Amino acid sequence: MKSSKTQAEAHLVIEYCPGCRWLLRSSWMAQEVLTTFETEIEQVSLRPCKTEAGRFRITLGEQLIWCRKRNGGFPEIKILKQSIRDCIAPQKDLGHSDSKGTG
Predict the structure, then answer these.
(1) What single DSSP character describes residue 74?
(2) Which of 10, 16, 70, 87 counts the most CB atoms within 10 A of its CB?
(3) Between the CA of residue 6 and those of 9, 43, 58, 69, what are the distances in Å?
């Protein structure tokens, strides 16, 4: 049985600036991701960045999923979940996070 992702790739890291007090935001996002991808993600790590003020990055294995500076802010949880899903479980239905507005 061949898996498209290794265990390392199923390791999500949320790197945040402790000086900016982003631990709570980071832990909430970790909880949301673990709840949604409980069988697909091996682990989520919270990593305080002590070398770069204002840093907020999310990586899945070696792949950069989100960078606050590059993307111009924090991700909406819906967008974050869709980005992670597209990498590790493209066929996974995200329920209301996949709903498209009408009109």
Answers:
(1) P
(2) 16
(3) 5, 12, 17, 28
Question: Per the structure block, which two tokens stand in for 95?
Answer: 């329920």
Which stretches of the chain score pLDDT less than 50? 1-3, 7, 101-103
What are 67-76's contacts with CB under 8 Å, separation 24+? 74/25, 75/29
The CA R_g of the chain, rounded to the nearest whole Å, is 14
Q: Which long-range contacts (CB under 8 A, 24 or more apart) does 33-36 make?
A: 33/80, 33/81, 33/84, 36/81, 36/84, 36/94, 36/97
Domains of the chain and CATH, by start: 11-91 (3.40.30.10)
